[in-house]
Design goal:
four-stranded antiparallel β-sheet; Butyryl-Coa Dehydrogenase, subunit A, domain 1; alpha+beta; 49% helix; Butyryl-CoA Dehydrogenase, subunit A, domain 3; binds flavin-adenine dinucleotide; Butyryl-CoA Dehydrogenase, subunit A, domain 2; 10 strands
Amino acid sequence: MDEYRQELQSFVRERIAGRADEIEQRADFPRALFAALGARGFYERCIDLRKDGHRFIPLDLARYRVLIEELARSTCFSLALPVSVHVGLCLPLLARLGTATLREDMLPRALRGELVGAIAATESRAVSGADFVAMASRATITDRGIRLQGFKDYITSGMAADFLVTFVPWRDPAHFTDICALVVPTAQPGVRRTPVPMSVFRSAGIAHFDFDGVELDRTALLGRQHFGMSYFLEHMLVARLDAGIWAVAVGQEALLLMQRYAQSRQVGDGTLWGESAVQLRFAEAATRLELLRGLVDSTIRAAEETGRIDPVAATAIKAATPGCAGAVLEETLHLLGARGLETRRPLLRMLAELRSFGLAGGSTEVMLRVLAELWPARRSGDAQEGIYPEWRA
Ligand SMILES: Cc1cc2nc3c(=O)[nH]c(=O)nc-3n(C[C@H](O)[C@H](O)[C@H](O)COP(=O)(O)OP(=O)(O)OC[C@H]3O[C@@H](n4cnc5c(N)ncnc54)[C@H](O)[C@@H]3O)c2cc1C
């Protein structure tokens, strides 16, 4: 593991350090960096291709964590986000559920970073992006093939993607079991993409897609036709965990910067660090970050042992991330005074981008609703219901 991290750190030092903000401002997908990471084997080493592996999702989470941590620390978020979608979601979906054709043709090139994958789930034009059953897109599936009609919105890496993994209902009216998962090459006739100029993740190639009578072979189906929604929910747990990994890595750097600055800053006879109010605020931010770090650590450890990601823990991580990351970065910005707002320190940009984790991959409200549903069932195993009258409803 250390070797993987060291190799990655030297890649980041050579190719990204000191250039992250320039890459972000260019609003141009960092394809060369994306491909170089793949060519050096950083993606392949995160994917567990053994058929007899015990992992439900074929991802080596501990190694994947290192990949996301180092890219997040580089502050080049428009590279980190596409890599997390490609390696955390697209590659495991292809490796686990792809037909032989997809696994033999597309997967090896995607592992080497020659192909860019994206996840296309959201439809946000008329209804809430979280309302899957209200999706307007349709896949008509027959013995001869699949015809895709509809649209998808705010797709990370969309402008650079060579293929999409999309989730689409295949009959009316749609129910959870009527959603399938499809692999759609973006070069296919009928696929049209439009860039969305964003004020966050400016170089992540976020795009809207339109599908107008896109014809696909049946080999485009991932897994079983009825199970698309289950696949989505299982695999999106990685994205929820991701948010926490990312926030903890960036938050640690921010806290250390805050401390170094406060220790070096003269105030009267002492330093800013000597002010108890400053230490208190620092410690409050550190406490929030430690709680999140503890949950991320234990969730990854448990997933490594059981092969499954705990949905309650992953959802709690996603729900807690925007608030925790926001609080840490806001404190850092505030304490650094005017220096925090210099362009060489992209704290304000990172604050906005980490806050947008409250939307990307599902809004915080949606996470909280899921938690309210899942949490009571999980606790019932060791709760002492009925024994102590004090706790009866
Ligand atoms: C940076 C970024 C990257 C993204 N990348 C992708 C991608 O790669 N693939 C993809 O498919 N999608 C992607 N998305 C889209 C993202 O998943 C949606 O933005 C998200 O699901 C929310 O949908 P929406 O934007 O339509 O907002 P809405 O669903 O309209 O929500 C707006 C607000 O309404 C409130 N709200 C919504 N639902 C509820 C509820 N049930 N209860 C209470 N309040 C609620 C919340 O406050 C929410 O913030 C990305 C978005 C962003 C910002």
